[in-house]
Specification:
The chain is an alpha/beta fold. It contains six helices and 17 strands. The strands form four sheets. The protein has a six-stranded mixed beta sheet with strand order 4-3-2-1-13-14. A six-stranded mixed beta sheet has the order 5-6-7-10-12-11, with no helix packed on it. Strands 15-16-17 form a three-stranded parallel beta sheet, with no helix packed on it.
């Protein structure tokens, strides 16, 4: 039986909350991002997957401290030494280009530094993995030109995949489930190629699968967002995080995506603590400790209030003061509406 196993993940945002010289001693979230990154690669090795595809935003921004870059690329090189090829798409946080390094010259590391297609042969099965770095402006117009630049229509493969890091019509984000519609910063479903077995997308942090109906094929094309591997904001507090194990199978002389398994990754709980703006300052510590004691000791806390806090509470809501109450195992942040000015 012909089967191809591919791990697809995206939006790892390595370097997030990872200060090299922190001015305040507290738990940071940076290791959480690296831990989940390595868990995905370990899964691919353990399950003898045929390849791994990263859908963009490997790093949390374009200018990354060299130590973060070196650590990331060393992990990638160690993984590539296992013989499994990994394909990486630069995202918007990298400004469509990864930091340069000799590590990227590894023969099993493939970077889409321009619109292109990489061709892999596995046991006589030809696989084409096409990809585009993030397109920043007027993607609705630039997308078709980029597909032509790849030469998409000229390649005949057993399995043809397209990797993107863009907003796609129909994708949803945020607690209010905002849905992307057609527009200059969104790729329309109708413009996606019909003959891709799957379209693998980064950029949207919510895990989801859309379907594209094709003109000449009965089976629609799945448009797969793996989502981010960690929660980067409280807008994602209730979202599952993970990656996809994609199983392609040849059935009756035709290749198809037989299964898309979403594999969840561990994430720390995010909790809101609401502060009564009229709470007497004398009760603040007692009430706050009661709230915190009910939470998971690894929680990430956000302090919120319906109104701006009174002056006495303001004096108590400082990082120094709260650090004396909140366990070191927790992180905490503040809603921008707590104060007259953003924090």
């Amino acid at each position: 039986m012909d089967i191809i196993n591919i791990v697809f993940f995206s939006d790892t945002h390595l370097g997030f909350d990872y200060p090299l010289r922190p001015r305040v001693k507290k738990r940071r979230r940076g290791e959480d991002f690296f831990n989940n990154f390595e868990k995905v690669l370990a899964y691919a090795r353990t399950h003898n997957c045929d390849m791994v595809i990263h859908g963009g935003d490997l790093f949390f921004r374009s200018k990354v401290p060299q130590m973060i870059v070196d650590r990331t690329y060393q992990i990638l090189m160690h993984f590539a030494n296992s013989g499994i090829p990994i394909f990486i798409l630069p995202g918007n946080h990298e400004r469509s280009r990864l930091p340069t390094s000799l590590f990227l010259n590894h023969p099993q590391i493939f970077v889409f530094n321009c619109p292109r297609i990489f061709i892999q042969s596995l046991n006589s099965i030809k696989i084409g993995i096409a990809g585009l770095p993030f397109i920043r402006n007027k993607v609705d117009q630039a997308f078709s030109a980029a597909i032509r630049e790849i030469g998409w229509d000229h390649y005949r493969m057993d399995i043809k995949l397209l990797a993107l890091h863009q907003a796609i019509e129909g994708a949803t984000v945020g607690p209010e489930k905002f849905t992307f519609r057609k527009g200059e910063d969104t790729i329309s479903l109708s413009t996606l190629p019909d003959d891709a077995l799957a379209i693998l997308c980064g950029h949207i942090h919510r895990q989801q699968i859309l379907t594209k109906n094709n003109r000449n094929q009965i089976i629609p094309t799945p448009v797969i967002f793996s989502g981010s591997t960690e929660r980067t904001s409280f807008a994602e507090k209730d979202e599952n995080k993970g990656f996809y194990h994609l199983i392609f199978q040849k059935i009756e002389e035709r290749w198809k995506l037989a299964e898309a398994r979403f594999i969840r990754l561990p994430t720390r709980p995010m909790e809101d603590i609401y502060i009564d703006p009229d709470l007497p300052a004398s009760l603040f510590r007692v009430i706050l400790k009661e709230k915190i004691d009910r939470l998971d000791p690894n929680s990430i806390i956000r302090f919120r209030s319906g109104k701006i806090l009174n002056e006495n509470l303001n004096r108590l809501m400082t990082t120094k003061s709260l650090s004396q109450i909140i366990p070191e195992s927790m992180n905490f942040t503040f809603s921008r509406h707590l104060y007259k000015q953003d924090i």
